[in-house]
Amino acid sequence: MRALYLQAIDQHRHRVLSFAHYSLRIREDAEDVTQEVFIKLWQHWQKIDHEKLGAWLMRVAHNSVIDHVRKQRPQQANLDHYAEVEDQVGEESDAAHLEQRHFKSQLQSAIKSLEDPFRSIVIMRDIQGMSYEEIQGSLELSASQVKVYLHRARRKLRENSKLRQLFEEQIADRSDVKQPIALVANNNKGNGHAQ
Amino acid sequence: MPSNGESKCYFIQLQIDGYLDGDLSEAQQGVFMSHAQDCSACASEYRYAQTVQDAVMELPQIECGNLVLEPIHSLTAGGRQAKEDAQRGSLATQIAGLLNSVPLYFRYGMSAALVAVVAVAVSFSVVTPIEEPGQLVASESVEQYSPEDITLALQELNVAIDYLNQVSQRTEVMIGDRFLVTPLQDSINASFQRARIRENNPLNNGPI
To answer: Nearest-CA neighbor of B59 among A149, A154, A126, A153?
Structure first.
């Protein structure tokens, strides 16, 4: 049994830690959640349906994250240990790369600030590439709910004012970059009329 | 009231995520692209949505190192013993939760009843005569438990009995304290208080 259990850990550990990391953005808390998830797996090993192990693990991870967020002290709620993503990008001092890193960092903060289940759905679908069925099983939502919530979550993400500001600054700096849709010179945002 | 153009932009921008996911039909895609090419606001919104979506999808999977899972390996290396300890703990916790939720008299009575049942069962098993060969054959066809399973079951039963004994002792003390000692003390204190008041006001005690 222990061999199968260790095999399950190897298969799912990166996904569980990733989910906890993008949800909490504090490395120690993410590791705590990961450990809690796999301890619960050990305790309930005999009772769970092993064909749906992935969804079960993500559901437990999701619930553990919610518990951690509830227990978080108010001053910690705003703490945001910028992820190792920035470290992985490297030490480039080029302005464009710095901009990109800043954008990604702000993006991760914006993801963390989303309410549940929007945050969880964005992480599961867009970052981890889970299928709709897996997400349904993990969050106990219907198929239509998953899609609706996903689109709503993305819209909420785009409403983050800092993220939008960074994007507009990048656009202003890179006005010579080829765009997928033809763009007129003046930005007539808001009037909705053709140029 | 929003103009037709603004309504159309609102509707088109609602479809951005569907377009990015490839969920729109060909006709819907055509309408979407046609409007986005004519409307700079919607084109800008689409580009922003695409940039954010691409950035999210580029976020990497976080690697889980072995150090994170070391406590798990230590826990499971204890194997069966650790599982038994966890189960024993959880069993005692469940019994505690169940007992705390029922009324006091029920807890007290239940513990006494359980001890009586266990005593009867144990005495019955001691008194039961040796089985005849025919009966032995019949019992062999019934599912057999390993000695380890039986030992584990007895250990868990002992834990439960110990816990129930503790509860009954605490209940006894609590009942005695709440319904006997405390009322008696209150009554005595009240008498002393009344006597003190009478002493301080001697005129009130006179016949006139």
So the answer is: A126
E strand intervals along B81-182: none
**A39: which chain B residues are within 8 Å (Cβ-Cβ)?**
72, 75
* A85-88: Cβ within 8 A, 24+ apart: A85/B59, A85/B60, A88/B60
Which residues are CB-neighbours of B41 under 8 A, at least 6 positions away?
A188, A189, A190, A191, A192, B9
Q: With contact defined as beta carbons under 8 Å apart, do B104 and B171 qualify?
A: yes
Chain A residues touching B64 at Cβ < 8 A = 13-14, 16-17, 34
Shortest alpha-carbon distance between residue B146 and chain A (Å):
18
Q: Are B88 and B159 in contact (CB under 8 A)?
A: yes
Q: Measured between alpha carbons, how far is A167 from A159 in angstroms, rounded to an integer? A: 12
In chain A, what is the greatest distance between 2 CA atoms, to the nearest angstrom? 67
Q: Comparing C-alpha atoms, which of A1, A32, A43 is closest to residue B86?
A: A43
pTM (predicted TM-score): 0.59
Number of residues written out for chain A: 195
Which of A5, A107, A128 is opposite residue B61, by nearest beta carbon? A128
- B86-125 residues touching A, CB cutoff 8 A: 86, 90
pLDDT per position as a tens digit, B109-168: 677 777 777 777 777 776 665 555 545 444 455 567 888 888 888 888 888 888 888 888
Instruction: Name every residue whose Cβ is closer than 8 Å to that of residue A36 and which is 6 or more positions away in sequence.
Output: A60, A64
Closest CA to A111 of A182, A160, A66: A160
How far is the C-alpha of A116 from the C-alpha of B194, rounded, in Å?
Answer: 64
Q: Which residues of B touch A15 (CB under 8 A)?
A: 61
